[in-house]
Amino acid sequence: MRHVTTPPAAADTTDIRLTTGYYLDPDGLGDYVTSLLARCATVFDVKPLLIMDLDDPAASGLDADKGGHIAPGALVEGEVIVQAGARIEKGAMVTGPVLI
Fold it and tell me: N or C: which end of the chain has fewer CB within 10 A?
């Protein structure tokens, strides 16, 4: 009699090391970053989604009117979005595109 074993079905083939939760704990991160990470199935999704959000900041909740603070004396060049609760201190030099 010949015995054949079938391999167990793989419920999820995604490597845990590819998920954002493997590297980051969302506690203490801003609302936007938390929502961005929730939309990412893998770490490879972060950059494309962030770029898409920066193309239309208001639609993604990054409206400048709800942003953080840029102190007088900070040098800011290019597209710089400062999240609510974040600040750029006097003397800082920031060149965009960047999300703080």
Answer: N
